[in-house]
Amino acid sequence: MKKKLLFVSHDATRTGAPIVLLRFLKWIKKHDRYDITILLQNGGVLHEDFQEIAPTYMMNKQEGVNTTPARKGLNSIFKRREPVLPDSPFPSELINQHFDLVYLNTSVALTIANDLKIAFQCPVICHVHENEYALSMLFDDGLPEHHVNAVDKFIAVSKSTQKNLVDSYDINEAKISLVYEAVALKEFKKPSIPKEAILEQLNISNNFIIGGAGSTDWRKGVDLFVQLAYWLNKLRPKNFIKLLWLGNVSAEFNRQYQYEAKRLNVTDSILFIGSKEDPQNYFQVFDVFALTSREDPFPLVALEAAALSKPIVFFDQSGGIPELIVNDHGGIKVPYGDILEMAKSILELADDYILRILKGSEASQIINKYDIAIIGEQIITIIDSLVKVD
Questions:
Q1: Residue among 200, 199, 217 at smallest CA distance from 208
Q2: Whole-angstrom Cα distance, residue 37 to residue 311?
Q3: Radius of gyration from C-alpha coordinates of the chain
Q4: Looking at residue 161, what DSSP letter applies?
Q5: Using 50, 70 and 90 to split pLDDT, how confident is the model at 80?
Q6: pLDDT computed for residue 89 by the predictor
Q7: Would you say 143 and 332 are in contact if contact means Cβ atoms under 8 Å apart?
Q8: Which residue of 152, 154, 219, 373 is surrounded by the most CB atoms within 10 Å?
Q9: What's the Cα-to-Cα distance from 14 to each of 25, 77, 221, rounded to whole Å?
Q10: CA atoms within 13 A on the CB side of 210
């Protein structure tokens, strides 16, 4: 009989962690290894995608739960230690079910680890996709001890993530497994729309295109992407450079951008095209990928750029990306926050076609070991080590 696993996602938005989980679950389903159930703490555009994989349930909303826009439900939903009561936020359909393991995708879901442990009396895994800044924003007073103690194994997505869990939260290193993020290489390397059609759609021609991607928040450095456009124009007036950002644009950032872009005179240099279901169709038009993140544990967008042979320019000390691009093999590392140096490095790649192609080729070779088929097996090994396999 297949083992029953409950996967918990903090939401179903088209962002890094839910996308990684969705791809992993698709891969698991293909191999028909486990009996899967999915629990979402919050909804999002990927809700139906999760439903196509397995029965998917939503957490019940409770009175008094902090759901302010700033936190968006990321605060602790439970802070008590007693068993789950009939008014628990867990859907009634799950209450009496048996699960062999609970898998929490992101530390946000850690806020209900103890309650899940009590409810289902099984091992719990917490897959941490967050580093120092993100975790400090989520947990003002540190990780809740009773929820941490309920976790049997943490999965860290980079050495930087693992180090932060040990150094900042005193989690036993033996309790942490290092498993890098994954990309579905076969799928991502095959855009479904020709490059020429995308360029026509975006009304771009004969431009050198710099790509960026992610949510428009401080951590992803989207404001630095705007500064990058300024410095490129200053260093190379009358250029043919276009900057293209892929990802949902918040109303707050849009107001900030409209204000600043006019003053920096970069309105014609940048295009924000929103979130896309098939990002590979747009990544294919990039000549270079600019990772402006201030903090990114092991950025999925960098893996996706590398899959399409795009050289990556990134900041040092910004998370796990230096673990992917080592000694400038596949990209160029610049000092943290140094946008001027990033602009100079991008112009170097723009001016040297051979160097650009070489680094793009290096990136595509590096990425092979991060395919979902390889990373998926590593996660399954961890799951099977905690589950009693018949």
A1: 199
A2: 38
A3: 21
A4: H
A5: very low
A6: 75
A7: no
A8: 154
A9: 15, 23, 18
A10: 28
* Alpha helices (H) along the chain: 16-31, 47-53, 92-95, 113-120, 132-138, 145-149, 159-169, 185-188, 195-201, 222-235, 251-264, 280-283, 300-307, 321-324, 339-351, 353-366, 372-386
- Return the SS3 of 171: coil
Q: What are phi and psi of 313, to 5 degrees?
A: -110, 130
Closest Cα partner for 312 from 320, 295, 324? Answer: 324
Angle at 5 between CA 299 and CA 80, to 5 degrees: 85
Token readout for 224 is 């630095």
Q: Which two tokens stand for residue 204?
A: 């771009």
Query: Among 288, 276, 319, 310, which residue's Cα sits nearest to residue 180?
Result: 319
Dist CA 18 CA 230 (whole Å):
33
On the question of pLDDT at 210 being above 70, the answer is yes
pLDDT over 90 at 176, yes or no: yes
pLDDT of residue 76: 36
- On whether the CB atoms of residues 113 and 10 are closer than 8 A, the answer is no
> How many other CB atoms sit within 10 Å of the CB of residue 368?
11
Regarding pTM above 0.85, the answer is: yes
Predicted confidence band of residue 86 (pLDDT cuts 50, 70, 90): very low
Q: What is the pLDDT of residue 389?
A: 60
Set out the domains of the chain in order of their start, with CATH numbers: 4-182+371-386 (3.40.50.2000), 186-370 (3.40.50.2000)
pLDDT mean over 217-227: 97
The confidence score (pLDDT) of residue 165 equals 97
Report residue 336 CA to chain centroid gap. 20
